[in-house]
Every structure is written in structure tokens, then in C-alpha cells.
Design goal:
- The protein has 371 residues and is of the alpha+beta class.
- The protein is 37% helix and 16% strand.
- The protein contains nine helices and twelve strands.
- Helix 2 packs antiparallel against helix 3.
- The longest helix is centred in the N-terminal third of the chain and has 34 residues.
- The chain is elongated and about 95 Å long.
- The protein starts with a helix and ends with a helix.
- Bound molecules: dinuclear copper ion.
């Protein structure tokens, strides 16, 4: 019996250490590579949230230590000692104690509610002014579609460019409503979150939601869908690239550069593979189902930002997307072109074409030189 208790204890200690190690390892990546850190805000809105979180955290620590410490102290102090034979003093409540442990927490919560509600209203206030950038974000399974509403009408995916030091107003929505033949069931709840720039906001199909972002400095800020939305939820990432307002304007200008539709269609042998049935190559035209591919070679990542934009990643994606990202029974997703008879060589050719499909001077890809 004693042996069993010992073994159990040892197992419990080992388990506790293992769990703590795994849990704490999540806190390890605090370096510059961790771009999803709400405790390291990079803009005014995220700062406001941290300003609220930090004092409340310490209030909770003090109360937690007091309650747990008090419980342990009382349990030890008043426990029955060996050989002692006494009944505890019988009481019927203590009015002073009971009233105070009701009122004190209520007062603490009431005090904490004041800055909380103020922050909620503050963050819900829509930014106004001529500088504000308006972007409509459509949450898809499993990627983000962006439409720039301020005249340029650019359509792009996953990678959001914004000016630094300027408020950005986001209208978040689900995919267009299901109707008739174009009906597909991808209307699920997502949540848009760029921890360094603001809190998260759920995106519920059939509704529109508001969220604002602002970055103090130019830089890249990574985000992630924060609401479980199916198989590739973990691969529904995004990147915000903040630039100086002048650089942002230049980017916006460049992205509106139109390309002849037939050049693009020929570039991917559209007759055979029918890419244009899901993707648009016109900079301001929304993709029917898949991401808009205008100037796609300018982006740093693709496929819900699961992959960095590299030659190998791209051709493998073109060739057999379902093997690169779980898409399950989703009705309309990037199909396996292996199954449609595409050769690796052809997939590589299409990747090379897409990588040079840029509004800037494309990078040089040695693999694309020979062909
Ligand atoms: Cu979209 Cu999780």
C-alpha cells in the first residue's frame, strides 16, 4: 500500500514537471521572431489593452496569493493535531465577515469596471479623418481577403499593407452569402487578430464587425485566425506590413497597375487548368473563390500565410495543394492538379510565372532561369 502511494506520488511529480515544462516552453520565444505577442504592443490600441491588463494582473495576483495563502494558513493553523481530541467551536455565521467579503469584491470589481468600460468604448470608436485607411476584410476558409476601400479598390490576400502611424479602419465580414448555383458552405466564424496592433475580433457570417489597427513604426506584424474554423484553422495566418505613408502610397499605386488578362491567362495555360474560374488576375477584381493573384509575386507568403513565397513552396502548392494544407471536404478549394494530370515541370513553370507576376522588379529565381 505504501509502495503504491509512493509510486503515485513520484508519477504525479514527474507529470507536474512535464506539464510545467511544456506549458512554460510556450513563453520561451520572446525574441524578435515572435511577432504575435500581445505583451509587446507596437501601436496605440494594443498599448491601451496592455495598460489595462497589467495593473489588473497584479490586482489578481495579490488577491490570489491572499486567498490561497489564507486558506493554507488556516488549514494548517487550525488542523487537529495528533492526540488532540476537541470539537471545533460551533458558530452560526459571522455577519461582519460575510458582509465584508461580499462588499469588498463588489467594490473592487466596480472600480475595475471603470477603466475596462472606458477602454471598450475607446477601442470601439471609429477613427475619422482624411488619413484613415479603410479596408474590408473577408474571412474565408482558410485565408484572408482584403479590399482597399479608399479609391484604389485593390484586392489582395493574407498580406495587409498599411501606413505606419495612421489609424486603419477594418470592416470585417464573412464570405458573400450563399445563393443559387454559386452556393458554397464556407460561412463559419473566424477571428481576426494581430496581437501587437490590437485585440481580436470575431468575424461572424452575415454580419459586419469593426476593428481598428495602428502601428507606431514601419515593420511586419503577424496575426492569426483566433477562432476555430475547421481543418486549416491553424494555417489561417496573416501578416501586416506597415510602411511609411509615402511607401504605402507607392505600394498602393503600384498594385493598381493593370495587366492584360490574356497575358496572365496564357502564362498559366488557363485553357487547360482553368485557374481563372477561381482566381482573378485583375488588381481590383475580387477572386470568385480563391485569392486574387494580381502581383502575387510581390507577396511574402501565400496559402493563408502558411508558406513563405519561395519557388519550392509555390510549385509544390500549385501541383498538389491538398497535400500541403488540410482542406478536407471543403467544397471549393485549390484542387490537386496532380490528379488533373499536371506534370511537375508544368507546376514549376506556373510557379516561375507567378513569382515574376509582380508590380516591382521581380526577384531572381535561379530555378526559373533555365526554362
Ligand atoms: Cu479562421 Cu480559424
Amino acid at each position: 500500500m505504501l509502495d503504491r502511494t509512493h509510486r503515485f506520488r513520484r508519477a504525479a511529480i514527474v507529470a507536474a514537471v512535464a506539464i510545467a515544462t511544456v506549458a512554460l516552453s510556450g513563453c520561451g520565444d520572446t525574441g524578435p521572431k515572435n511577432k504575435q505577442n500581445a505583451l509587446r504592443p507596437k501601436g496605440p490600441y494594443a498599448n491601451k489593452i496592455l495598460d489595462l491588463t497589467q495593473p489588473f494582473f497584479w490586482v489578481a495576483v495579490i488577491i490570489g496569493v491572499g486567498v490561497v495563502g489564507g486558506t493554507i494558513y488556516i488549514a494548517l493553523r487550525f488542523r487537529v493535531k495528533p492526540g488532540e481530541d476537541r470539537a471545533p467551536k460551533q458558530v452560526h455565521g459571522n455577519t461582519v465577515l460575510e458582509v465584508s467579503w461580499t462588499i469588498v469584491p463588489a467594490v473592487i470589481l466596480a472600480i475595475m469596471a471603470v477603466p475596462t468600460i472606458a477602454t471598450i468604448f475607446d477601442l470601439a470608436k471609429k477613427p475619422a479623418g482624411p488619413n484613415v485607411v479603410h479596408i474590408t476584410v473577408t474571412a474565408r476558409q482558410w485565408w484572408w481577403e482584403y479590399h482597399y476601400d479608399d479609391g484604389s479598390n485593390i484586392e489582395t490576400a493574407n498580406e495587409m499593407h498599411i501606413p505606419a502611424g495612421v489609424p486603419v479602419s477594418l470592416t470585417l465580414q464573412g464570405p458573400p452569402k450563399c445563393s443559387g448555383d454559386g452556393c458554397y458552405a464556407n460561412g463559419v466564424i473566424h477571428s481576426f487578430w494581430v496581437p501587437e496592433l490590437n485585440g481580436k475580433k470575431d468575424v461572424v457570417p452575415g454580419r459586419t464587425h469593426f476593428l481598428k489597427l495602428q502601428a507606431d513604426e514601419p515593420g511586419t506584424y503577424d496575426g492569426q485566425c483566433a477562432e476555430y474554423c475547421g481543418l486549416a484553422h491553424a494555417d489561417m495566418r496573416l501578416r501586416v506590413i506597415a510602411e511609411t505613408p509615402a511607401d504605402f502610397k507607392a505600394w498602393e499605386q503600384r498594385q493598381t497597375t493593370a495587366r492584360a488578362e490574356d497575358v496572365l491567362k496564357n502564362g498559366v495555360n488557363d485553357k487547360q487548368w482553368n485557374c481563372s474560374s477561381c482566381h482573378s488576375f485583375a488588381p481590383t477584381k475580387p477572386g470568385a473563390v480563391g485569392p486574387n493573384l494580381a502581383h502575387v509575386g510581390d507577396r511574402q507568403g501565400f496559402a493563408g500565410f502558411k508558406y513563405e513565397m519561395t519557388y519550392d513552396n509555390l510549385w509544390q502548392w500549385v501541383w498538389n495543394a491538398p497535400s500541403r494544407k488540410p482542406m478536407g471536404k471543403l467544397e471549393q478549394h485549390m484542387p490537386s492538379f496532380v490528379d488533373k494530370g499536371m506534370s511537375q515541370e508544368e507546376a514549376k513553370k506556373i510557379a516561375c510565372f507567378l513569382l515574376t507576376e509582380t508590380a516591382t522588379t521581380p526577384k531572381t529565381y535561379p530555378e526559373c532561369q533555365s526554362s
